[in-house]
Amino acid sequence: MDVNAAVAAAAAIAGVLTGVIAMLAFRWSEREQKRPTRTSLHTDPVLPPGVDTVLSVLRSSAVVLDEADAVVKASSAAYALGLVRGGKLSVEAMLQMARDTRRDGEIRQVELDLPRRGTGRGEALAVSARVAPLGSRLVLLLVEDLTEARRIEAVRRDFVANVSHELKTPVGALSLLSEAVMDASDDPEAVERFAGRMQIEATRLTNLVQELIDLSRVQNDDPLEDAEPVRVDELVAEAIDRCRHQAGAKQITMAAAGHVDLAVWGNRGQLAAALGNLVENAVNYSPARTRVGIAARRVTAPGGDMIEVAVTDQGIGITDKDKERIFERFYRVDPARSRATGGTGLGLAIVKHVAASHGGEVTVWSSEGQGSTFTLRLPEAGAARDRAHQRPDLDGLDDETGPSSPESSPYEPLHSPEVLP
């Protein structure tokens, strides 16, 4: 009996000890699970206070990497540029920079050309990457997109080169012609012929310099100077008068149609130059005995009514490839024809900038062999009619016998009231 009691007591004590040990082991396991480990510190790093806020307002693309080169934080711009894919930095050169900076703590900066992924184009993405340590374990990568800046710089270089070339041509011609005049001093007919050529080259040089001045004026970001209500019919009449001689030499009929009570708000000189360039181009690129039409109309737009002035010709037309570049400075669809007509390649660039500075736009429709239509779209002078009682130059907007009436119009009306495509 005593032996059995001793065995039972020993068994009871062993059971109690086992339970205590199990409970202690369970508690110790829970504590170990809650304790941060080295691995968890690496996989779930914490940004220093304020860094997240600073990165969110940076204009540059920002990426933060941990010790394992995993992306801890990345801005939306970094994803848009394709720098981060699948939680990893996708540019090997930048990844190597981050590793070197993590090793020695030195700040590094480099400019790279990255391929545009998913666009199918061969153009490179120019970026400037700067890597710096962020605390003891993290690395910060800032990437600035330089593509647009490089494009603008290339445009400036091309502009300077083109200006130099365009100025060199008439200046060189004048130099040669002056030498020819000196050598032919005893031949009156040759002197007269060379002098006529000199006048042509001098006129071309003058036009080029003037268009360069006009382009520089309309390219600035200053508010419009001397803005006023400008009647569209007066702009059309001035553009036709400007090209009347060239059109007459080629037997080209110029006709205009549209509402006569339209007015736009802007700089009269710039608007006249823009519309004049469109009409002059239409005449120069049209075959003999064809027709150039100018139509104006009011269109409704969400921000207010707009005035559309369309210039239509029956010329050679423009290819799809050239349509993308015709508004570039010094670009010519037909260089040979431009040389023959004295064109500088700046006319459409001036039109584009004038339209933009006036809050409008210029568009083109064209088909090879069927002609082209350039449409200048400008905001209407909303208060033009209200100003008519205070401004004498607008008194004839609604007067049937005034200068805006069809009877006194200096140009022939079209059979169709619209020539828009």
Automatic annotation (TrEMBL):
Residues 162-382 form the Histidine kinase domain. It comes from the Bacteria. The chain crosses the membrane at residues 6-26. The keyword Lipid biosynthesis does not apply. It catalyses: ATP + protein L-histidine = ADP + protein N-phospho-L-histidine. Residues 381-421 are annotated as: Disordered. It is a multi-pass membrane protein. Its EC number is 2.7.13.3. This is Sensor-like histidine kinase SenX3. It comes from Streptomyces resistomycificus. The lineage of its organism: Bacteria, Bacillati, Actinomycetota, Actinomycetes, Kitasatosporales.
